[in-house]
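hey can u run this one w/ zinc ion bound, need the structure tokens asap thx
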Amino acid sequence: MLLRMKARSKIIIKNISVVSRMDDSMGELEDCDILIDGRQIQSIGKNLLAENAAVIDGRNKIALPGFINTHHHFYQTMTRVLPKVNDAKLFDWLIYLYRIWEHITPEWVEISTKLACGELLLSGCTTSLDHYYVFPKTAENLIDIEIDTARKIGLRFHPTRGSMSLGQSEGGLPPDSVVQNDEEILRDTERLIKKYHDYNNLAMTRIVNAPCSPFSVSTALMKESIKFARKNKIFSHTHLAETFDEENFCLEKFGKTPVRYMEATGWLGEDVSFAHCVHISGDDIKLIAESRSCVAHCPSSNMRLGSGIAPVRKLLDSGVPVSIGVDGSASNDSSNMLLELRNAMLVSRVKAGVTSMSARNVIYMATRGGAKTLGRKDIGEISEGFAADIALFDRRDISFGGTGDPVAALIFCGRDFTASDVICNGEILVKNKKLLAFDEKGIFDEAERIFKRDIAPHL
Ligand SMILES: [Zn+2]
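ok here u go:
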């Protein structure tokens, strides 16, 4: 059941305790208002007036730009915490899960999109990429279902047309039942661009080209797909340098490191982002930086699978735009962006020392870094003319009592990591820590039903 209210043309958030704008000056304003007109932020300041506007009380609240999640696999929300792979490393985990994912159904995709988008929104996220790449012959138009569902929920969405073309019979990792040929993949990417991609400012849907990884697609597809993406002016995304196993696979098969393989296939540039980049050398970092390619850092997933810790401080110091992704829910096992920011800050301190990552550094990566990764100049910042994508967090929580820096406290402290109010595209999607798009308990019950029907028989 859809409970979401029709957007009002104006919203005013009154007397916000702190607005952390994430603009170039990293400005923070105290006790001020934000006026939203339609889909954009109209003004920020004290004592703003607006007739007939919906009013949100900003007292004791922190306002941040809505977070931008740059790596996810929504469909995996239905295969979380499976006992046989709770303690497996990536390749073993993938081989087990491919045998379950090959039975994916349209209802599974729909419910998993609701679960993922719902949890993302509740954690203050307003834009997400989704890397979808499993296409069994038994189900069609699964990305269309994701897009329709995300539109009903109201999240700004960058769905990828993922792909796998290298099955086990050709030396790849996935079973042959879920791979497609290069022609099918490019034809469907073109169909999705024509049907859904919005090139305009404030776009709610943009398609991304996203072969799964070097170990699941052919070299020909890597080369063809990047040319195709550039011809159609869309961005490209893939997994890269996630584990030692992948590095060994690339060295054995191509005689190159994963990043050098990207260079050889034309996959470097500011229209490209790589998820993970855990196992990269100084030479790799130089190549990524010089080409202005972006990195989606997924700390929880890397820790959960024991893959390692990405050298984020080195990447940032080299000028690489770094963003944050929760990664697929089967390797996190959560879609909570605020929690992901906390993990990004903490794990960087383990790798590179306590001064390597501040609370504001991770907020910047999850907002401005995310916008750069997705090639957008209209989101990630609370400034006039930017998209009205704002997350509010309530300071009046026992976990924030006695704190001296309210913005940093969101990352350092925390108990439930839930936003009090979330606005996306000028619409209120979360109010008083509750989703307005659907009944949360009803979605849980639906997920249980689909799990028993579609997943449990294959465990
Ligand atoms: Zn992933």
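The longest strand covers residues 10-20. anyway lmk if its weird
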